[in-house]
Amino acid sequence: MSRLISIVIPLFNEGLHIEESLNKIETEVLKTGLNYELIVIDDGSSDDTWEIITNRKKNYPQLKAVRFSRHFGKESALCAGLDEAAGDAVIVIDGDLQHPPELIPQMLFLWEHEGYEIVECVKSVRGQEPSVKKLGASTFYTLLNKLSGYNLNGASDYKLLDRKVVSAWQQMGESNVFFRGMTAWLGFKTTRLDFTVGERAAGNSQWSLLHLWRLAITALVSFSSLPLRIVTILGAVFLLVSIILGMQTFYMKFTGAAITGFTTVILLLLIIGSIVMLSLGIIGEYIAAIYLEVKRRPRYIVTERTDVR
After folding, report:
1. CATH second-level architecture of 4-206+299-305?
2. 8 A C-beta contact, residue 302 and residue 69
3. Beta-sheet strands, E only, within 73-142
4. Which DSSP category does 227 fall into?
5. 219: which DSSP letter?
6. Which of 28, 160, 200, 266 has the fewest CB atoms within 10 Å, measured from its CB?
7. Per-residue model confidence (pLDDT) at position 309
8. In angstroms, rounded to a whole number, what is the distance separating the alpha carbons of residues 239 and 234?
9. Predicted pLDDT at 6
């Protein structure tokens, strides 16, 4: 009996090219001869994405679509896709064709014949991405590797996950989701495929620098407590420096060698004040993450779906 493959496609304002993207993805899946389902998650699009999907559904029984009540973000859309998937293996792929669908048969071969439980597609060339984003991505992944020990350099959301991996994923109940990091944390038998990021089928990327910054902060806070330990280390260092300076000040005072002036005091106040504010900011990020987790709000809310349950 042929096994079922689930293809999860998160979308946000992709109406200009969604038909072309779905056709290319479906063409590559059909080459494998396996049963499949296409699971499309509309992350609260404000264009005609949902209308195009529902019209397509009339002629494609393999298509299952879910629409969010608002824009919850790509990480939430990925969570919904994994929750909806019923396949023995699940492939997550972007709907803008920057993840080349041509890799799908190879991913399935590695899963079906080589026994890999995670097939991770890695960006060997980042394509036409702006230099600022390339530099930011490199800095972020280097920092994450140093703080958490996970090497995600070049990592993408383009992955194949075996059913046992998906089941393990669903046991993690975080509200702050970082898909790439969480799948790396799971372990399992993993292999990598290199790919060159393609050009978008149409339109512009929905990822602004602000969105990328928020994702980076979520990832760092979720996967490492080292920044909090750095705050403690800095506090200890400045305490030691304060003791040394205090002893020096008393010595100079009692020997009559004290020099009138506030330069040293002002510099120390500026340095210590900056460190204190930075430390409070780091602690605040962790408190904010705890705040979001303890509320236990759902990762997403579904307002429409093409298959009524």
Report:
1. Alpha-Beta Complex (3.90)
2. yes
3. 89-92, 118-125
4. H
5. H
6. 266
7. 45
8. 8
9. 92
* pLDDT the model gives residue 250: 65
How far is CA 72 from its chain centroid? 13
93-138 pLDDT per residue, tens: 988 888 888 889 998 999 988 888 988 888 776 555 556 655 665 6
| Region of residue 115 (left: phi > 0; alpha: psi -120 to 50; beta: else) | left
Between CA 139 and CA 56 the distance in angstroms is 41
Q: What is the mean pLDDT of residues 152-174?
A: 83
- pTM here is 0.68
Q: In 180-238, where do the E strands start and end?
A: 190-196
Side chain identity, residue 13: N
Residue bearing tokens 């780091």 = 282
Listed in sequence order, the residues at least 6 apart from 112 whose beta carbon sits closer than 8 Å to its beta carbon are 3, 89
State the pLDDT at residue 260: 57
Average pLDDT over residues 41-60: 84
Q: What is the pLDDT of residue 7?
A: 92
Phi, psi angles (nearest 5°) of residue 202: -170, 165
- For the chain, which residues make up each domain, given as ranges? 4-206+299-305, 226-295
Exposure b/e, 284-305, CB count within 10 A at least 16 = b: ebeeebeeeeeeeeebbebeee
Please, are residues 66 and 80 in contact by the beta-carbon 8 Å criterion?
yes
Question: Do 136 and 212 touch, CB atoms closer than 8 A?
Answer: yes
Distance of CA 260 to the CA centre of its chain: 55
Mean pLDDT of the chain: 76
| Residues comprising the chain, all counted | 309
Please choose, from the candidates 219, 265, 226, the residue with its C-alpha nearest in 3D space to the C-alpha of residue 246.
265
* Structure-block tokens of residue 50: 């949902």
| Distance separating alpha carbons of residues 288 and 173, to the nearest angstrom | 17
Element (H, E) at 67: strand 63-68
Residue with tokens 């296409």: 38
Q: Which residue has the tokens 């509320």?
A: 295
